[in-house]
Write a structure and sequence with these properties.
By secondary structure, this protein is mainly beta. The protein contains 1 helix and 10 strands. The two termini are about 20 Å apart.
């Protein structure tokens, strides 16, 4: 099992043995690409799913510091909320080794209307139903590649 995030196409592909199993629309950073701390950019390169958070949480569950707050968020609004499930990325290359320290996740969002366009603060956003599906399919350690 592996994941491929294509920034140009704003898609995330779930692959197994080179075969495409599923493709999801996503949203990467509106600030562009990079690994600089505080840049709010989406990093490029090779990663792994370091940790998974949110198993069993309801759709729209609002997370702060990877903890369910007890609140269920609706769609819309200007806030950049982390919802439903979290896949925490760990960088595997010198240029993106700070990814975990930058708290770069694949997660659900309250701004589903922006999926398909660069709109995040560095994370890879997904529709809430999509991140639930993906979460159940990928174990910790799953390799991820983010490409232009």
């Amino acid at each position: 099992m592996s994941l491929l995030v294509n920034v140009a196409r704003q898609t995330l592909e779930l692959r197994e043995d080179g075969r495409l199993l599923r493709q999801f629309p996503i949203s990467t950073s509106r600030f562009g690409l990079g690994s600089e701390p505080g840049s709010f950019k989406t990093p490029l390169g090779k990663f792994a799913v370091s940790e998974k958070h949110g198993a069993g949480a309801p759709l729209g569950a609002h997370f702060v510091s990877r903890q369910f707050t007890g609140n269920i968020a609706g769609l819309g609004g200007d806030e950049d909320l982390v919802l439903t499930r979290i896949l925490w990325l760990e960088g595997l290359e010198p240029g993106n080794a700070n990814t975990k320290d930058r708290y770069i996740y694949i997660h659900g969002t309250n701004q589903e209307q922006l999926i398909g366009t660069p709109a995040s603060h560095g994370c890879v956003r997904m529709k809430n139903a999509d991140i639930c599906e993906l979460y159940d399919l990928v174990p910790e350690g799953t390799p991820i590649e983010i490409v232009v």
